[in-house]
What does this fold into?
Amino acid sequence: MLHGDRVALRPFELDDVARLQVWFDDPEVRLGWDDEEATRSRADLEREMRPAIMGEDHETHWFVIQEGDAPVGALHLHLDEHHHNAEIDILVGEAEARDRGLGSDAIETIMRYVFDELACHRLWLITSANNPRAIRCYEKCGLQREGVLREAGFQAGVHVDGIIMSILDREWRQR
Ligand SMILES: CC(C)(COP(=O)(O)OP(=O)(O)OC[C@H]1O[C@@H](n2cnc3c(N)ncnc32)[C@H](O)[C@@H]1OP(=O)(O)O)[C@@H](O)C(=O)NCCC(=O)NCCS
It folds into this structure.
């Protein structure tokens, strides 16, 4: 369990997959996540996540974002140990929990973990150009825009730019 100021990141259990799928059913999450996971059946999702949840895939980690006892979202961490890179995806699944600083606290928490405990060099993610809230959240956490994947995403029938954002360990320490 990783503790932030306002949230905790608790490792996923198999029972959490059902909740994740409910969150994926929210059109706002679906637009923001833009990954195939969001459209999988419960059985497929569970099959895909099982190795990470059971600790058999040491490069992939799923966390439930908890505010007190309440699960409010999910964070996916993928480690590239060879390059010392950490990639994340995040969703705050409970609509009323968004825009309250919980997403940025979850990111601050995972940054502390990957830079301080895992000695990663770079944390990065991809978001959509049409997700200003996500971009604002990541910029608040110190991530910089580093590139554009031109029309790489496909959302609601439209090709949208992907934005790569990142922060290096020295930048994180200098904040
Ligand atoms: C994106 C997400 C993870 C951010 O988490 P969060 O807890 O809502 O974010 P925070 O409250 O920490 O920060 C959001 C910031 O965006 C701002 N914001 C909200 N809507 C905005 C908009 N349309 N344009 C610009 N900024 C916006 C908020 O005011 C806040 O900034 P502030 O603290 O300066 O006021 C969450 O909203 C979410 O999961 N959304 C749906 C799924 C998604 O988009 N996932 C991201 C995939 S890359």
Q: What stands out?
A: The chain has six helices and eight strands. The first helix runs from residue 16 to 24. The chain has one domain: 2-124. The two ends are 25 Å apart (CA to CA).
